[in-house]
C-alpha cells in the first residue's frame, strides 16, 4: 500500500526579495509539512529573518507567493495572516511590559480570530475563566508560575521569550514560527524549552524554527533547510543535512558537529 502524500500546510513558491540592489532571497521554494518541525539554518545574513518576515506579511516579496493551507498570503496584512492561524515568536520579545505575566498570556486569547467581539456578558465571563485557566496551565508548563503576578517588563530576556511563547500558544496556531526561540536562555532553560517544544509537537502543531544553536536544531527538527546567500542550498532530514558537504562548506565551516 502506498503512503499518503504529506499535507503541505505552507508553500513559499519562487519567492524573491530585493532590498534595493541587494537580493536577500533568490528563487525560494520551501514546503512545510503539517505536524512537522522544519528548521531553517544558515550563516548570518543568509536571509532567514527576511524569509520569516515575508511569510508573516511584514515584508512583501518582490515576486513569488506564499500559500498557507490553500490561501495566498501575499498582499495580506500581518494581523490577517495571524488570524488565519500563523503565530510567530520574535527575536526580540514583543510583550506588554506594563502588564503582569498572567495578563500578558491572557491578552492574545481575547483577540478572536474572526475579529468579532461578543457583548454577551455571560459568555464573556465564562470565556474569561476558561482563558485564565489555560494561561495558568501554560505558565505552569513553562516554569513561569511563580512569576505570574510579576511585572513583565522586569523579566529576564530568557523569561520574556518563554512568556512570548505562552502568548503564542494560547492562540492555538496551526503554524508556529520561532525565530531563535532559545536565544538569551541558559543551557538549563534551553533544554526545558526543547522539551516543551517537543510536547507541543505531540499535539500536532506545525513549527518552523530559525536557530543558530545546533543542539536545539538537531533536538527538534524533522526536516532542515539550509539558506546561504539567499538561496536554499540543501533541504532534507537532519542526518542528510549533517552529511551534506555543501552545508559543511557553507554553514558549518567545513566540520559538522
Ligand atoms: N530592511 C532591510 N533593508 C535592507 N537590507 C536588509 C534588510 N533586512 C535585511 N537586509 C539584508 O538582507 C540580507 C539577509 O538578512 P537577514 O536578516 O534576513 O539574514 P539572517 O539569515 O536572518 O541573519 P542573522 O542570522 O544574522 O539574523 C542581509 O544582507 C541583510 O543585511
UniProtKB/TrEMBL annotation:
Alphabetical list of PROSITE patterns matching this protein: ABC_TRANSPORTER_2
Keyword Nucleotide-binding: yes
Highest taxon above the source species: Bacteria
Record GO terms (molecular function): ATP binding
Record keyword Nuclease present: no
UniProt keyword list: ATP-binding, Nucleotide-binding, Transport
UniProt cross-references to PANTHER family, sorted A to Z: CONSERVED COMPONENT OF ABC TRANSPORTER FOR NATURAL AMINO ACIDS-RELATED
Protein name: ABC transporter ATP-binding protein
Residue stretches making up the ABC transporter domain: 10-254
InterPro entries: AAA+_ATPase (IPR003593), ABC_AA/LPS_Transport (IPR051120), ABC_transporter-like_ATP-bd (IPR003439), BCA_ABC_TP_C (IPR032823), P-loop_NTPase (IPR027417)
